[in-house]
Amino acid sequence: MSSKISLTRYLVEQQRIDGHIPSELRLLLEVVARACKSISQAVNKGALGGVLGTAGSENVQGEVQKKLDIIANEVLIEANEWGGHLAAMASEEMDSIYVVPNRYPKGEYLLLFDPLDGSSNIDVNVSIGTIFSVLKKGNDNPTMVEPVSEKDFLQRGSQQVAAGYCVYGPQTTLVLTVGDGVAMFTLDREQGSFVLTQENVQIPADTKEFAINMSNMRHWDEPVKRYIDECLQGKEGPRAKDFNMRWVASMVADVHRILTRGGVFMYPWDKREPNKPGKLRLMYEANPMSWLVEQAAGAATNGRQRILDIQPTSLHERVSVILGSKNEVERVTAYHAKV
Ligand code: P6P
Fold first, then answer.
1. Is 65 in the pocket of ligand 1 (CB under 6 A)?
2. Which atom number of ligand 1 is nearest to the Cα of residue 267?
3. Is 1 a domain residue?
4. Which of 44, 57, 176, 182 sits at a 20 to 30 Å CA gap from 166?
5. Residue-wise pLDDT tens digits, 124-165
């Protein structure tokens, strides 16, 4: 029987053999994975755990928080604050950053997360997930021990040292990159450990499947309308092939499908809130997903530039997202360049 490679062994080998990651980062990722296991348990209980429904509060985005949003956020904070790997954390569910309390040792990493993405799907038993991103606390003057602040988080996505998500679906699967390709680990509930089930994930450069919320069509910009219209024309149109559509309304589920079989995911700017660049958040949704997609030979832009090159100006800023099969993303981006 082929020996199962656990997440622990994969990370030790990334540290020892490939020298890709220091032990501090390896240990941090192990803690995040354990937190995802706990979240998976809470999600799987559903109504039996009294965790469905709303919490009666709103997050910084003005969105109604689900009970599980808050539970997942608390699990990640409590799991990560004492380990000594982090200086601070940032979450979709918290207005400002969470500085590691002085009673614990502080480390050199910053952890950002959307604790439970796709919350609108929780109560209807559709896949949801946790998205996370790891940055290093830049310290251009090591002798100066400055207190960590929001500005330490405002780094381009290209500065990430680790990124991933855990999808809570028919399987609980952790998907991770530390800059050496993308690996997928499925939770073996009998052993209680994540087991390597796919390595060196590759997104096909071409696809016949797009993911977008079609109900927003009348609000889209012309380049997006043109791209989707051409897909809908199928074999008779300029693309000379028929397309299929998927929209789970859970970014983690849609991106997991694209990493698994290709496709293009789009949440573009639209006229409903013209002053916002998009719906999805740059720091803890678009950046981690874009790095994963690029590490799997895909592409990710905001229609005009590579998402990982965007210089953030605020922690919760939003961005237009077009990511997935490289040739499709390049086509949509080229259509934007023509206007
Ligand atoms: P809509 C979930 O709330 C989320 O942030 C993403 O996971 C998902 O892709 C998107 O919003 C769905 O948005 O407008 O289709 O409900």
1. no
2. 9
3. no
4. 57
5. 999 999 999 999 998 655 555 678 999 999 999 999 999 999
Q: Is residue 2 part of a domain?
A: no
Residues 83, 50 share a domain: yes
Spell out where 122-245 has E strands. 128-136, 162-168, 172-177, 182-188, 193-198, 209-211, 244-245
Tell me which of 169, 198, 227 is where a domain ends. Answer: 198
* Digit-coded pLDDT (tens) for 261-310: 999 999 999 999 999 999 999 999 999 999 999 999 999 999 999 999 99
Distance 56 CA to ligand 1 centre (A): 20
CATH number, domain with residue 228: 3.40.190.80
Please state the domain count of the chain. Answer: 2
- Ligand 1 midpoint to CA 198 (Å): 27
Residues 28 and 169 placed together within one structural domain of the fold: yes
Q: Lowest-pLDDT range, 41-55, 70-84, 95-109?
A: 41-55
Rg (CA), the chain: 20
Ligand 1, atom 9: closest residue by C-alpha: 251
Amino acid identity at 156: R
| 3-class SS letters over 264-298 | EEEECCECCCCCCCCCEEHHHHHHHHHHHHHHCCC
263 domain residue, yes or no: yes
pLDDT of 45 strictly over 50: yes
Q: Is residue 204 part of a domain?
A: no
